[in-house]
Amino acid sequence: MDQHDQAADIHSANFRRQREASWRRLERLLNKVKDPLQPMSPSELAELPQLYRVTLSSLSVSRKYVLDRRLTEYLEALAQRAYLEIYAPREHLRGMLGRTIVHDFPRAIRGMGAELIIALMCLVIGALAGRAIVLANPDLFYGLVSESMANGRGPDANREEMMASIYSSAADPIKRLQEFAFYLAHNNTAVALLAFGLGLAFGVPTIMLLLYNGAILGAMIAAFEMHDLGVDFVAWLSIHGVTELTAIAIAGAGGLKIAHGMLFPDGRETRFAAAKRHGIDAGVVLIGAFFMLAIAAVLEAFARQLIQPMEQRYAIAALTALLWLAYFSLAGRSRKAPRGTGSE
Amino acid sequence: MTALQPPSAKIADAAPGSKITSLDRDVLTPEGIQIPVQIAGIGGRYAAALIDVSIILLISAGMWLLFAFISGWHHNAWFAAVGWVGFLIRVFYFPWSELHYGGRTPGKMAMGLRVIGRNGAMLDSRSIMARNLVREVEMWLPLTFVIGGAGGLGPLGYMATLGWIGCFLAFPLFNRERMRGGDMLAGTWVIEETKARLMPDALNEAEQARLARQWIRRRQGETDVTERLQFSPSQLTAYGAKELNTLGEVLLDRSTRAAERQKSVAQAIRKKIGFEGPAMDDTQFLQAYYTAARAQIEKEAQWGTLRKDKHDQRETKTSAGRG
């Protein structure tokens, strides 16, 4: 056969001639996707997946039968771009957050019952220990509680000051906003650190931090007890404390879950895959904990100063406890599908 | 990556120490094709992060000035607003833009980077939230802690916090996929997007040149010397895809060294295949050889795979054997 007839016959040349228009079109459409000034029409959007599949099949053919290496590289790059655009996430932030709070977060909590109990126990044990230590030896209070946190309160302060810290009210709304901002920043620091960083360190620091936080709490309670203000202090604390401590326990539980997953990966998974699975759940937990802390911060800055009588404070605390309990046990449970046709 | 799917060209061709770098990975699309991706290098990621942080600071500063102006520089309100707005911007900048722009932030767009799911899995919104919330722990909160005076823990607390930040900053250096703590927990990779550029085809060029010559010659009543060329199949398969691709590049070369390169390549080929045909222009010879060799090798590919290179010893298919 004449060499030149062979050349005219070359499949790759024909192949490229036939397909090149489609590839160029895909390129143009992909450029349009990125450009906010050129919105795409519905028919153009519908073309994308089709052109993508054509490109993929071209890529397959090119790899096997086409000698021109740079054509294959071009198709690989084009396929990559198209793949990333077509399979990009399509959700809105608000939709995603809404779904997480209403659905994913309560479910995730229900899935970490054991870790939650451990976390709560650490807080309680820490508190009891801290209280016992300070009652036995008041000087140790200053070892446990830092100056900035104590803020003038403690076994050596006088009773009037201690009472004032529980029962005064700052009328200035600006000041309350300030406090709010401060509390939020302060809270989130502690919590986020607990939930993640320490989970990656196999959980031991999480437990230590929970115990320590509990101890600080116990020390403060002891200090107020020594001035006969123990019950009042707990009331003052628990308006937001129920929410805040639960959030911290939840965050700690999230960290423990990651640690558990990394220490004992299921035989079928690598540690990486386990970390990823627990990491996403823990991410949900962290979002939820942030959300709880935002609520705690509002309660701390506003409700705490607005509501003075001790009995009312306990009532509010009990109410928050009930609401959270209801939320965690009931939210996000899917309704049973009606029996019968069985169509989704 | 399953063994059943043909890998991408880069990875398939890799010989030890060849141009595949340690950052190349293959990703399997839902349609069952392997697509190569390139993990982003550290420098690019730090640069993108720097750009994003600068943008956050700029936006925050802008809002602060606005609030301060509105509130008449009233100290308390300004302080409270600062805390709030800055916090919101910082927390939501990354997740919002990664969701909105399909895995990219302005900083990443500037550097040509993108977040994808590990092994090419679809990037879902929960991964995006998780990987960004971890950044709070890795960097932001310790940073505000340090700036705010390390909560009374003194120089030890200061150093410990800086150490914490440093460890997490260096984390990507210690794993092959260059994952941050957040990437590892969320199951994501950051890749460098490849630019797609369609190059001219050497075959096309050769064909155009031949047709042009043919037209000229016919008008002059002569035949083109290349039309009397015949290569035997074994001559055409002396080389494989690798060498022919290089030849294609030589043919498309327009630099000042082109003529020189073509001369040495033509010489080498003539010698290797023991060419005894008529004397001719180097370019014409190379074009004719390229066209014929490519046709031969691609035809053979239909009964097997593309002949890789000159060491790929296999039986040469002659015309007689074709169905």
β-sheet strand percentage of chain A = under 5%
One letter per element, helices H and strands E, the order of chain B comes to: HEEHHHEHHHEHHHHH
Average of pLDDT of chain A = 79
User: Count the helices of chain B. How many?
Assistant: 12
Compute the number of strand runs of chain B: 4
Q: CA-to-CA gap between the ends of chain B? A: 36 Å
Beta-strand content bin of chain B: 5-15%
What does it look like?
- The complex is a heterodimer of chains A (344) and B (323).
- Chain A has helices at residues 3-8, 11-34, 42-65, 69-86, 93-110, 113-136, 141-144, 147-150, 159-167, 173-200, 204-225, 230-263, 271-306, 310-330.
- Helices cover 79% and strands 0% of the residues of chain A.
- Chain A contains 14 helices and no strands.
- The longest helix of chain A is centred in the C-terminal third of the chain and has 36 residues, at 271-306.
- In chain A, helix 10 (173-200) runs parallel beside helix 12 (230-263) and helix 11 (204-225) packs antiparallel against helix 12.
- Chain B is of the alpha+beta class and 323 residues long.
- In chain B, 56% of the residues lie in helices and 7% in strands.
- Chain B is built from 12 helices and 4 strands, in the order H-E-E-H-H-H-E-H-H-H-E-H-H-H-H-H.
- In chain B, strands 1-2-4-3 form a 4-stranded antiparallel β-sheet.
- Chains A and B meet through helix 1, helix 2, helix 3, helix 4 and helix 5 of A and strand 2, helix 3, helix 5, helix 7 and helix 8 of B.
